[in-house]
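>> received
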Amino acid sequence: MKNKTSNRRLIFQIAAVVVLIAIAYAMTIVGRGHTVYLDNKKLEYDGKTYDTPYKVVVLVDGEQVAKLYDRERGSATCIGQKFTVTLEITEKKGGNETTQTYTIPLPKNMDGIIINLPAYLAGLGEDAYLTEFIPSPDAEIVEEDTPSGDDFGMDDMTMDEVPVG
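>> returned
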């Protein structure tokens, strides 16, 4: 009887551990947050130039997160592996505005993701429009040589060298 109870307990413990591991794995995929940077910058790819629209208004969940003109970058936060964004695009100043909603799959191995809008809108592949954001290292702090308080260079002199006058 004791052997049957210990086997049963062991099976329940192993099952509990397997369930917890499955939940943890699911949460890493579903609950992972990404910062997505949207670039409205001209791109040269395979010898072809992709120009920027005049203005792009970026909406996430119905809320405006950025208004991008040429050479500007906006950002949004996304939870999960798909980024759904609505873009209100004006190709030329004074032109008509078109609205499109896009769902962009995000890679699991990147935290900060840059999406080049002209490349994405042109239908180029992920290697053209998607890059990882790598923050620049903080500027190296240059310490200045601080004065010691002795303006005449007499700190290094011993009492024997001090002129008596």
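>> The beta strands are 33-40, 43-45, 48-50, 55-60, 63-68, 72-79, 82-90, 97-105, 112-116, 130-132.
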